[in-house]
Amino acid sequence: MKNIITLLAGLIFGLGLIISGITNPAKVIGFLDIAGLWDPSLVFVMLGGISIAFIGFKLVQNKTQTVFDDPIHLPGTTQISKDLVIGSLLFGAGWALAGFCPGPALVALGAGYKEAFIFVIAMIVGMYIHDRLFKACLK
Amino acid sequence: MRYNCLKELSMHLTINWPNFTPSASLFGGILIGLAASILVIFRGKIAGISGILAGLMETENISQDHHRWRALFLIGLIGSSFIYQIFAPLPEINISASKSKLMIAGLLVGFGTRMGSGCTSGHGICGLSRLSHRSLVATISFMISGFVVCYLFLHAS
């Protein structure tokens, strides 16, 4: 049961991305291009998402287990690190270059776009470089 | 002072009315928020796509469920286009970036989201709705960087 619900959550997430329009990189770049013809649609995606997720997280904030007895993992870190800022700046740069962030890229991959395939492979390589090489070097 | 800055910015902002889709985007956003709520309520997990994807590659010190829920969520996400097109034609996707630009962008997004512990979904939706200060800093950082890089590529040359 909980596996079906998890699958459905992924499906609803993807449908939300498609309906909101942000699986289209041209629309994302239309939002990031504030000096050109600006498309503020992405603000509305965030408003819709945050307001509903706010309720969802409120419902679990005092719980430690789900109805299926799984632990509820909420991030506990509060420290604002250099990595958080530098990593997010790098992410934003890549986001603006292609118009893809991870979710929409995976949806476009599922729709069969070979450009999304190239992006997703490079993204996985980037993750691997960070997690396996970069972090290992710092240790 | 602040009023003047806002006035200045608003005078230079030109809204792209034909492409602006407030209701569809709001509805899509509501579905995204609903999916994030379902995942945390019924599975106890955060719907951060970069973290879910990267977690699939982990092999050390992991529980039995570690890969299963991630794979299921991603199958649903990747399969959403297929389900959508049963009911309606998929909206068009325009990708203008060249192959090399896509690769550089992908590397930056992959590396940056791991270093910054999240992307638009994990920080921008889940983190902000939890009123996390870290996620607010992350979201402001990737938005500013996105605006600047977009400006550099579209207007500075």
What does this structure look like?
- The complex is a heterodimer of chains A (139) and B (157).
- By secondary structure, chain A is mostly helical.
- Chain A has helices spanning 2-20, 25-32, 41-60, 82-98, 102-110, 114-138; one strand at 37-38.
- Chain B is mostly helical.
- Chain B has one domain (21-155).
- Helices cover 70% and strands 1% of the residues of chain B.
- Chain B has eight helices and one strand, in the order H-E-H-H-H-H-H-H-H.
- The interface between A and B is large, with 115 and 113 residues.
Summary of the model, kept short:
With 139 residues, chain A is an all-alpha fold.
Oligomer: heterodimer
Number of strands of chain B: 1
How large is the radius of gyration of chain A? 18 Å
How much of the residues of chain B is beta strand, in percent? under 5%
Order of helices and strands of chain A: HHEHHHH
Shape of chain A: globular
Average residue pLDDT of chain A: 95
Biggest interface, CB < 8 A: A-B, 115 and 113 residues
Helix content of chain A: over 70%
| Count of structural domains of chain B | 1
End-to-end C-alpha gap of chain B: 31 Å
Count of strand segments of chain A: 1
**What string gives the helices and strands of chain B in order?**
HEHHHHHHH
Characterize the overall form of chain B.
globular
Provide the domain count of chain A.
Answer: 1
Q: Roughly what is the average pLDDT of chain B, rounded to an integer?
A: 93
Q: How many strands, what sense, and barrel or not for the largest sheet of chain B?
A: none
Catalogue the unreliable spans of chain A. none
List keywords for this structure.
heterodimer, A: 139 residues, mainly alpha, 1% strand, B: 157 residues
